Amino acid sequence: MSINSRTPQEYEVLTGGGAESAEMAKRGLSRRRVLRLAVGAGLALVGAEATYGALTMLYPNLAGQFGSVITLQDKSKYPAGQQNEFALGQKGVFYEQAAKSYIIHLAPGPGTVFLLSGSKLTDQQAAENWVKDSDGTYWIALYQVCVHLGCKYPFRDDCKSFKCPCHGSHYNVDGEYLDGPAPRSTDRFEMSFQGGNVSVNTGKLNQHVERPDAQTRILQPPGIQCAAQ
Ligand code: FES
């Protein structure tokens, strides 16, 4: 049997040489040609690595971090409340640091007063990123940053609303503008459910909810004088 009829592995066993040499012998490749192939493969690898590096810089992997979809706790950890029952961390409104958001879980009932109805209501809810759950409750994920000049605004249990400590911008439980210098209602993220968990897409921010008027305001204002703190 000639050397050219052996596999590289057979050649290696018989001669103690490398499989690479056997392949050269088998294919009759010259060393120069092999060198050229090796250099070409090396350059292709360097090019691929450079492209990967550039793409990584342009599109950083944010999986699970702010700027991406963040899966929060089981829905049961956010008990729904009617508008007049909201209490931070207990009912209706919950702060989630990872998503830099307030998770709103609103229950219908006598303590929740809708000012719109029918398709006007559902259209406006869609425009303001409300998500209706199968049990008839509603969810919203409000971004924590005040749309006036960027302070973090707190929920005030005593006011049943959000009141920014910096210049007094005041927002209803659904983030709709009530009064103060803010140019619009609060911004909100897209949200959904992953299995039984609440999921917030912190890469999708709705910054286009205008100050409401009689045609667009969804919820009745709380009607409580909310003093500055
Ligand atoms: S930053 Fe909130 S009112 Fe000015």
Task: Walk me through this protein's architecture.
The strands form 2 sheets. Strands 1, 2, 3, 4, 5, 6, 11 and 12 form an 8-stranded mixed beta sheet that branches. Strands 7-8-9-10 form a 4-stranded antiparallel beta sheet, with no helix packed on it. The chain has 229 residues and is α+β, with helices and mostly antiparallel strands. The model is unreliable at 1-26 (pLDDT under 50). A hairpin with a 2-residue loop joins strand 11 and strand 12 (197-206). Helix 1 (8-15) packs across helix 2 (19-27). The longest helix is centred in the N-terminal third of the chain and has 28 residues, at 31-58. The chain has 2 domains: 3-58; 69-206, Rieske [2Fe-2S] iron-sulphur domain (Rieske Iron-sulfur Protein, 3-layer Sandwich), CATH 2.102.10. It has helices spanning 8-15, 19-27, 31-58, 118-127; strands spanning 69-74, 87-88, 92-96, 101-106, 131-132, 138-143, 155-156, 161-163, 170-171, 177-179, 188-194, 197-206. It binds FE2/S2 (inorganic) cluster. Residues 146, 148-151, 153, 164, 166-169, 180-182 line the site of FE2/S2 (inorganic) cluster.
